[in-house]
Each structure stands twice: as structure tokens, then as C-alpha cells.
Amino acid sequence: MRIKSLDIYRGLIMLGMVWVHLRTWWLRTEDAWFIAISRLLIDRIFGPAFIWISGISIMIWYRNASINAKELENYNARIMKKEYHFRALILLVIAVIYNLFVAIGVYDFTWIWAWFILFSLAFSMLLSYPFFRTSKLFRLIYVFVIIIINQIMVTILWPYKGQLNIYGVLFHIFYHPLFLYPILISYAFYLLGTVFGDLLFELFQIEDIAKRRLALRNKFLIPSCIICPVLFTLGAIFIGEFFWIDYPFAWVPFSISLIVFVMLIFLIFEVYGYFDTKKSYKFSYYFSYYSLTVYLGHNILFFLFFRQLNIFYFFIAYTTTVVLMGLALRVIYRRWRSKFSIKVQMGKVAIFLACQLEHIDVVALKKELQSSKE
User: Fold this and answer.
1) Half-sphere exposure (CA, 13 Å, Cβ side) for 251?
2) First to last CA, the chain
3) Helix (H, G, I), strand (E, B) or coil at 181
């Protein structure tokens, strides 16, 4: 089940993450003020949104896989569980290699343990599976508890940053570095995504358009119109934190409210047919389909204009780069499809390893899975 509005949203998030990285790499030191301001207002949106939407996608995968586990001969709950954990472990290996390159680049091997987004996402996946069978309400309450615990922990451990004692080590484990995506908050966003993924799965199981629109209103619009303003207001109350500490509480409710609000707009457009998703989402879809490939591959652009561009030329360079990337992905999609998608290849390796452990014929299983899709 592919949800076009989800593809559009993921693609736009990837474009935003590329913008954040290229801005940091390419802008001159004289424009550090622009980096600082946009980091406060923008960076805390795209990263958490990527983790959140990953939670949505994995929950939709989990619900579809659960159906297959009941209906297919060679696929069962044990294989599904192993496949999921192999996906997480493969991602963790990729994340550690990514962190290793960063550590070598900055001549500081403490950065092997750093909460870059892939590292956070891999650990979030490993921690989340036991909660997939719990209710949506339980996960929402659990997310709230995690956010509160995180705020208490960071407040206690912050004074010990960089110290060689147990508290300093704990700070490094949970919060190195603060400006990235520390595990507890990333874990909260990921679990929150699984709740939204459950709701989306249920929504798009409804074939009758009138009933689907009614469900969208009752399960998405009305609750969001109540919750999002409350979260936004809560963030506004603590807005002063943005300007005097590195890790404010305010960005968490701000991010949640904005991420959900934008997703709702795309859902409304799709469910009510306000735009032609068949024609208008392809460019964004390529960045969505190859999201992990784009995330890893765009790092080679680090050296292209390193610290050379002013703000005006940066926007020109970014726009040109994105257009060229989109055209390249379009050609790749037409010629190679999933062969160029790291995410798809991870899934294939994961299911192969799961089948090996369960002594299942992987070829027969793939045929069954392909038949179930058709």
C-alpha cells in the first residue's frame, strides 16, 4: 500500500535535509548568522520529521506483514520479527560506518558514538518493536513520558558535559552532541510516527471515499485541531529558550505540531482530490523512494563549494543541485528501479537472513509475497 501524500511529504523532507546540510557546508563564515537563525527555526523540523515519517512507514509495513504472516504459507510472525530486527541492525552498521567517517574527518573518535540521524533511527527501531502490538493510546502516553524523562535527564546531566565521571559518560551516551538527534527524543518521534502510521493504515483500508473522508475528519482533523494548537502554544511559552540554551524544550512541541499540521494538509489534498497526485508528485517521489540513497550520497557534495558561497549564490547552487539530482534520480528510477535503492536492498538482505535462520526457502517466499501484492 503506497500513500501518495506520504511519498510527497517524505520527498520534501529529504529536500529540506539536503538544504540544511548544504547550507552548513557551503555558506561562507561571514554568513554564520544565517546558519544560526535557520538552525533554530528550521533544523529542528526536518530531522525529527524524517524519524517520524520512518515510524509511519515501518508501522504500515508491520501491519501489511502481519496480514501476510496470517495468510501466507512460508511467512510467519517469527520471520517478520527477525526481518525487522535485521533491517535495524543493517541500518546500525551503516550508521556506525557513517559516524566513523565523520570521526576521522574531525580527528575525534568520540564521534563514532554520535547521534546523527541514522544512528538515532537504528536505535529507535531496535527499541520500538515490542510496542507495535500495544494500543495507540498507550504509545501516545509512553511518548509523553519519554519526553518528560528526557527533559529531566538532560537537566541533571548537562553540568557534567565533558567530564570523566559516571555522569559525564552518561551525558555522552545519551546526548552527544546536543545539537543533533539524541536518542530519547528521536525514539519519541519514532513511536509517535507508529501511532500516525496505524491511523493511516486504517484510513486507507476504507475503500468507500465518503467513509474515508469521514474517518479523516474524525480521526485526524478534529483531534489535530485540538492537540496541535495546544502543543504550539506550549512551545511558544518556552520560546525564550531558543535564544539562550543549546537544547531547549520548546522545539519538541513546536516540531510535533508543525509536522502533523503539514502532513494533514497533504492528506486532505489526497483524500479530497484537490490535486492530481498521479501527475504532481513524481519529482518528490524520487527523493522519497531513494531517501536513504540520497541521504548517504549527497555527502559527497560537502567538498563542492565548501565555505565559498554567500546566501544569494547558495540558493542558486542549491536549486540547481536539487534539479540535477531529481533528473538523475528519474533516469535511475526508469532504468534500475529498486537496484539503486539502499532501503530496498536492505529489506532484501533482511528477509534473506531471516529466512536462513528459519530454514525457509527464500525464493518460494518471494513468489508468495509477490502474488499477495498482485
Assistant:
1) 25
2) 11
3) coil
How does DSSP classify residue 178?
T
Q: pLDDT digit string (tens) for 113-161?
A: 999 999 999 999 999 999 999 999 999 999 999 998 998 898 899 889 8
Ranges of each domain in the chain? 4-373
Q: Label residue 37 exposed, middle or buried (CB < 10 Å: 0-12, 13-18, 19+).
A: exposed
- Global confidence as pTM: 0.92
Measure Cα distances from 319 to 23, 178, 315 in Å: 12, 30, 6
How many other C-beta atoms are found inside a 10 Å radius of the C-beta of residue 373? 9
Residue among 255, 150, 192, 176 nearest 53 (CA): 192
Helix (H) / strand (E) containing 68: helix 44-71
Cα–Cα distance for residue pair 249/178, rounded to 1 Å: 12
Taking CA atoms, 147 is separated from 150, 185, 188, 249, in Å, by: 5, 6, 7, 9
